[in-house]
Amino acid sequence: MVNVPTVTDASFDAEVLDSTQPVLIDFWAPHCSACRTLAPVVEDLAREFAGRLKVLSVNTEVSPLIASRYAVRSIPNLLFFKDGRVQDQVIGAVPKMKLLKVIDRLLS
Predict the structure, then answer these.
(1) Which CATH number covers residue 55?
(2) pLDDT, tens digit (0-9, with 9 covering 90-100), for 5-56
């Protein structure tokens, strides 16, 4: 996840819950092949929605507390936050169109 900033257990509240922008978080792990498949899509979304949507990543091996806090049991797992609350969730390596529909609802 080269172009997507990482959020950790320590920075999560400030970066996500206190964000004035909607936030997409990609929960992933290095061993997950589906996560590697989805990573370029997440990076595209970060570029496409820069300034309107904060896109972050959480390595579940490095920051397991966040994953546990939001009951992330399988990866890739995308959580969409607005005003500090989870608004939607997408699990698995899904097509970009599906994510665009969720983002459109989140930003409207």
Answers:
(1) 3.40.30.10
(2) 999 999 999 999 999 999 999 999 999 999 999 999 999 999 999 999 999 9
4 in any annotated domain: no
Q: Residue 79 domain-assigned?
A: yes
Instruction: Tell me the pTM.
Output: 0.93
CB 56 within 8 A of CB 7: yes
78 within some domain = yes
In sequence order, the β-bridge partners of residue 89 are 79
Instruction: Say if strands 23-28 and 85-91 run parallel, antiparallel, or are unpaired.
Output: unpaired
Sequence letter at residue 108: S
Range of the domain at 89: 12-107
| β partners of residue 6 | 57
Which amino acids are annotated catalytic?
Answer: 32, 35
